[in-house]
Each structure stands twice: as C-alpha cells, then as structure tokens.
Design brief:
There is one protein chain. The protein is mostly helical. The chain has 2 domains: 11-73, Orthogonal Bundle (Arc Repressor Mutant, subunit A); 78-227, GntR ligand-binding domain-like (Four Helix Bundle (Hemerythrin (Met), subunit A), Up-down Bundle), CATH 1.20.120. It is 71% helix and 4% strand. The chain has helices spanning 11-24, 36-43, 47-60, 78-94, 96-105, 107-125, 130-149, 154-161, 165-169, 178-197, 200-227, and strands at 33-34, 63-66, 70-73. Helix 1 (11-24) packs across helix 3, helix 4 (78-94) packs antiparallel against helix 11 (200-227) and helix 10 (178-197) runs antiparallel to helix 11 (200-227). The two termini are 29 Å apart.
C-alpha cells in the first residue's frame, strides 16, 4: 500500500493527483477497468474522495464512466486527437488581429507571457521527476490560455479550456524526451517574438507549426503504444 502525504491538500486532490500520475506512468493503462477498492488499498485513501477524484477525471476526459459497469481509463483514438488539434488551431488563429492588438496595448498581459516563458525554461532546465513534467504541461497550457484570452472573446476561452487537452497531453508529458520539451518552449518563444514584432503572417505560421508538431508528437506516441 502506498501511503501518500496529504497534510497540505484535500484528500480529493491527493487522490486526483495519484490517479493522474498512475495513468501517466501507465500503471493504469487505457481500457483498464478501475476498481475503487484497489485504489483505496494502493493510496491509503478512503473510497469517497477517490470516487470524487475519478468524477473529476471523467470531466477532463482521462476516465470513462459506464452506467452499471463502472469506470475505466479512457482509450484515445488518433482521429479524436487530430480533430481536437485542428479546433485548437482554428481558435488560436481566428482572432489573431485582436490578440496582437491586446498584446500591444496591455503591459500586464505582456508581462504574464514573459513570466510564463521564464518559468517554463527554468522548469525544463531543472526537470527531475513527474511533478516537473506536470508543471511543464500546466505552463504550456497557461501560455495558450493567455493567447486565447487576448482575443477578448470570453465564451471562446471557456470552450477552449474545456476542449479536453488532458486527453492528449498524457500521451506526451512524462514520456517526451527533454529535447522535445525544449523545442516546444522555443516554439512558444517564436510566437512571443512574432507578437512583439506585430508580424501577423509570422505569428500565424508559428502557431500552425507549433500545433502541427504537437500533433506529430502525439501520433508517434500512439503508434509506439500500438506497436508494443
């Protein structure tokens, strides 16, 4: 039984992180049925917070729930990932002129982008364990959320945040080589520099390249899993 330290977090949060970690590390594999009692024994956490954590993961798309049959780790299909990435590209390029205008006129937003890039590079240079991989993912997500927020379309940002990016991220983060993560941050820097230069054509190109590379990374991970 793995006893977890939950002095500074709620039991639901501890269970949530533990299950997500097991999914990322392939201790719980896609298609595997989830038995709450087994998770209770593994984590040393009572079943109620585990069930609440699983419901949160259902919302995020990492776990599937079937009436009267329980829950399992969700299997991801390439077509779903491809469609999701295409939607991301559409969202991030549709209001590109508004994004550039907001970036130009809002010093606070510019500072947030710079803080994100600085912290992201720091994490990658010192990456040690899975928690750092998760932080890498969260900073990646934050960068794109800042970008979409600059559109000024609050409803689009809400939809963007609920696209289910956790589904594909867990096929890359924790498995992606450090060189791939460094490349991702460099692509973020290129987007930032295009924003600073107010170069619309270059900005659009940088976004499209970044998302195309993300698609490629996930596809290779899925192919690797199928070949095992």
């Amino acid at each position: 039984m793995e006893i977890l330290n939950y002095k500074t977090e709620t039991l639901v949060e501890v269970a949530y992180r533990a299950i997500k970690k097991d999914i990322t590390e392939r201790i719980l594999v896609p298609g595997q049925k989830i038995v709450v009692r087994e998770l209770h024994e593994r984590y040393g956490i009572s079943e109620t917070p585990i069930k609440q954590a699983l419901n949160r993961l259902v919302t995020e798309g990492l776990v599937e729930s079937f009436p009267r049959r329980g829950m399992c780790v969700r299997k991801v299909k390439w077509q779903e990932i491809e469609e999701l990435m295409d939607i991301r590209c559409m969202f991030e390029t549709y209001y590109i002129d508004r994004v550039m205008e907001t970036f130009k006129n809002n010093a606070e937003i510019r500072e947030k982008f710079l803080e994100n890039l600085t912290e992201h590079k720091r994490i990658i240079e010192n990456i040690r364990d899975l928690n750092d991989y998760f932080q890498n993912y969260y900073l990646d997500q934050e960068f794109h959320q800042l970008f979409v927020k600059c559109s000024g379309n609050h409803r689009m940002l809400q939809i963007y945040n609920n696209l289910g990016t956790h589904v594909y991220a867990h096929y890359v983060y924790g498995r992606q080589p450090r060189e791939g993560m460094i490349q991702g941050v460099k692509e973020h820097e290129a987007i930032y520099h295009a924003l600073t230069a107010q170069d619309e054509a270059e900005l659009r190109r940088c976004i499209e390249v970044h998302i195309a590379n993300a698609k490629k990374n996930v596809y290779e991970m899925l192919q690797h899993d199928q070949d095992r």
